[in-house]
Recover the amino acids of this structure.
């Protein structure tokens, strides 16, 4: 039995919002955004394009690369903090859109760490129940533009929309090692208020007041998060490397969640990983939350930059707080 990634896909909307555009919307500058975050532009979906539509485009690309039909999927696991609706799940909406009629479907919320959580859960299901689950579609998809307060310069410059997908396959006739070499996911609910969308759930149902107070938008304590983010990335990566017995020199690529170039640089430095082996595309997309790592992975894969058996370390940090690292064998 061998569980491997057999397809990747990603999608970002066509419309690009540049730093120069944001200069006309809020009191900010291209210089501030670039120097503090590394972001130059981000892709923004149309108002009437939901997360499931972004996910659909990424899913179809991953399924095509995998060379399978949607009916063969046994599972759809979507990580998203911006579902189309609270229910039905975005995974069920996607199932209908792509015709994956045989798949069990669920959404999972772990904010920016979503894809790693989603991979961990789907991989565990394939491993535990090989006769029930052979093909899984695992996605990270977010339309953060739908929950950004476009008058708040401290958050609106950071985020973009996008989706990414991988197809996992459990090959019962193969005894190659699985794609997961080692992984670690964690959470600290004690810091939940540092990054949240306070209203719209059962704690604060939508009302005129919640809308007036922008409580359906992202609220973030950036400075506090910054320090916790570096620690979360570094500690989870170190644990995965120690347990797996694989050294930093053996890693072909590190793919960190793309939240802030300064967080990425600080984490890479503490892990002693040279910048040439850290994949970064934050300048093009900003922070796409659950989608970010998968967009990087897809770019590496389609760019021919991954060789068989390369070790790829993916790591993320986000609202919850949540964090995680997964060492992948390509
Ligand atoms: O996705 C995972 C979760 N998210 C994160 O991990 C994000 C972590 N945090 C960060 O990336 C950074 O903290 C930010 C990019 C959000 C902010 O950078 P910072 O260097 O921590 O800036 P700051 O919040 O300390 O603000 C510095 C100054 C403030 O002005 P004063 O008080 O010094 O006069 C802000 O009001 O920059 C001001 N500022 C801005 N100025 C121009 C904040 N946003 C902007 C802006 N343009 N867009």
């Amino acid at each position: 039995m061998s569980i491997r990634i057999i397809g990747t896909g990603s999608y970002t909307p066509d419309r690009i919002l540049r730093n120069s555009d944001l200069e006309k919307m809020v009191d900010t500058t291209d210089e501030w955004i670039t120097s503090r975050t590394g972001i130059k532009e981000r892709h923004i979906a149309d108002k009437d394009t939901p997360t499931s539509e972004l996910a659909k485009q990424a899913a179809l690309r991953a399924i095509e690369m995998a060379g399978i039909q949607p009916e063969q999927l046994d599972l759809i696991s979507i990580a998203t903090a911006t579902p189309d609706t609270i229910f039905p799940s975005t995974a069920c909406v996607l199932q209908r859109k792509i015709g994956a009629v045989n798949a069990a479907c669920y959404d999972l919320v772990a904010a920016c760490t979503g894809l790693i959580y989603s991979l961990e859960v789907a991989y565990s299901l394939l491993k535990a129940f090989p006769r029930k689950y052979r093909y899984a579609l695992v996605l990270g998809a977010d339309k953060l533009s739908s929950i950004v307060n476009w008058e708040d310069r401290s958050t609106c410059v950071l985020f973009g929309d996008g989706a990414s997908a991988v197809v996992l396959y459990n090959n019962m006739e193969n005894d190659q090692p699985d794609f997961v070499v080692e992984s670690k996911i964690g959470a600290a609910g004690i810091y939940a208020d540092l990054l949240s969308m306070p209203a719209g759930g059962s704690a604060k149902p939508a009302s005129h007041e919640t809308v007036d107070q922008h409580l359906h938008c992202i609220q973030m304590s950036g400075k506090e998060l910054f320090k916790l983010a570096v620690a979360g990335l570094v500690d989870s990566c170190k644990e995965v490397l120690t347990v797996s017995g694989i050294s930093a020199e053996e890693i072909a690529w590190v793919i960190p969640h793309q939240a802030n170039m300064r967080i990425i640089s600080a984490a890479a430095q503490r892990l002693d990983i040279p910048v040439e082996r850290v994949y970064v595309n934050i300048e093009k997309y900003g922070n796409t939350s659950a989608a970010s790592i998968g967009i990087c992975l897809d770019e590496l894969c389609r760019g021919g930059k991954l060789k068989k058996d390369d070790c790829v370390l993916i790591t993320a940090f986000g609202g919850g707080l949540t964090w995680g690292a997964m060492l992948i064998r390509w």
